[in-house]
Structure formats: C-alpha cells, structure tokens
Amino acid sequence: MVTIKVKQNSKQAKLFLEYVKTLPFVEVLNTSDTSSNKKETLLSDIEKGLQEVKSIREGKTKPLSTSDLWNE
Description:
Distance between the termini: 44 Å
Radius of gyration: 20 Å
Strand content: under 5%
Helix content: 55-70%
Order of helices and strands: HHH
Number of helices: 3
Number of strands: 0
C-alpha cells in the first residue's frame, strides 16, 4: 500500500488526482477528512449562522431563549 498526499490547489494536481482515480488498481479512500473540506464545512456553517442572525434582526425569525437551547 502506498499513500500519496496531493495538494488540491492547482489545476495539475486536480487533473492528476482525477487520472489516478480512473486506474483499476487504485482505491481512493475517504477524502472528506482533508483540511480543505473541513474549512469549506466551517465556512458554510458560519454563513448559515450569519443568515440566521440577519433573519432574527429583520424580525423574520424569533430568537431562541436559553431554555430552548438547553432543550435542543
């Protein structure tokens, strides 16, 4: 077994990774644990939170009380 780390920041790296995935003797393990995916998830969660704050400030959504948070 061989492990290869590829930084997915360049076009060449992405093309290489796509090519490697097509080889019949290559098994690609779960890549969702990479830092770039974690960063995307974090940014997505922050964006959702900011949208909720905006909605509350505009009066479209009722804010949760602390007892609601504890019960969740």
